[in-house]
Amino acid sequence: MSVRKIAAALNLSPSTVSLALRNSDKIPPATRERVINQAQRIGYRPNAKLKEVMSQLRLTHIRPVEACFGVVSFYDTLRPWERSEHHARIFNSMQLRATQLGYRLEPLLLRAPGMTYRRFRTILDARGIQGLLSFGSPNIGELFPDELSSYAVVTIGLSIETPLHRVTSHHFNDVTHLLNKVHAMGYRRPGLVLGNYEDGRSSHAYIGAYLGWCEHVFGNAVAPVLRLERVEEEPLVNWLRHHKPDVLVFVHLYDVLDELQRVLKKNRIRVPEDLGVAAVTQIIEGTGLSGMQQNQALMGAWAVELLMARIMNQDFGCPANPRIEMVESRWIDGSSLRVMQ
Q1: Are residues 230 and 272 in the same domain?
Q2: Residue-range definition of the domain harbouring residue 20
Q3: Which stretches in the chain have pLDDT values below 50?
Q4: Are 87 and 135 in contact (CB under 8 A)?
Q5: Does residue 339 lie within any of the structural domains?
Q6: CB 253 within 8 A of CB 195
Q7: Quick check: helix, strand or coil at residue 150?
Q8: Fewer CB in a 10 Å sphere around the end CB: N or C, the chain?
């Protein structure tokens, strides 16, 4: 389906339709919406592969094909987003943005039984895949295989140690924003409880932000940082009773938030009357807690845009100067904080 067909259906000029499909500010929002709706109705998809070819100025004798990004990870499953709501939100955003730009996404299992990296390269080349979106690894410090160094790669997060273009949450700013928020509400004794896994996956940015902020505002941290694997009841309750923070800054995986609330309730610690709680995690909505929630929609979209730009610029392999795009989390209001008197 061509731009001209959309233009004829809406009684618009082809140039207007083209600009609207690129979300140009030159076109009124209402017209852009009409064009996009019509494009979706007729199944229009821009030919991203043609854009790649044109950027290389080598159109002669090349047959246009649909562009495709491979989606890989070092998890033991083809689709890690089916096991994680956090990953699912990122993948859905990737898929939406890729479709808008004329790409399709193809999940590929790096660690399939009998798979070698040499064979994996053969599969990529046979399918015309030049770009890979990586969901990273469950293990911190993973190395990306040298055998795949001829492709453009963008990874999510910091788990892969190899220098790559990547999109990640802005861990440092997230904690700083949260601390500024609770300080403005009147809290003066913020204590940090930090999951060991999150500490490693952030390259210790969370603890750096907390200690730096406390030194700047108070002169020193009001309590030592408590590190936990999950929500171990005894060390947490002892730490709370000994150091008496007025607000608990909880930086951990989203699947332990219920455990935290159960432990506090079991020990008759009322939230927010006795203790304020503010979390920094992947998903907070629906928990009743306040805090910073990662912006998976932007992370997925930016990863696709970054990978497309790398291919357009013929930027393949491990970059000498990798680009790191940091996405700030969103503040979610809950019922776990109160304005202090």
Answers
A1: yes
A2: 1-32
A3: 50, 53-54, 56-65
A4: yes
A5: no
A6: yes
A7: coil
A8: C
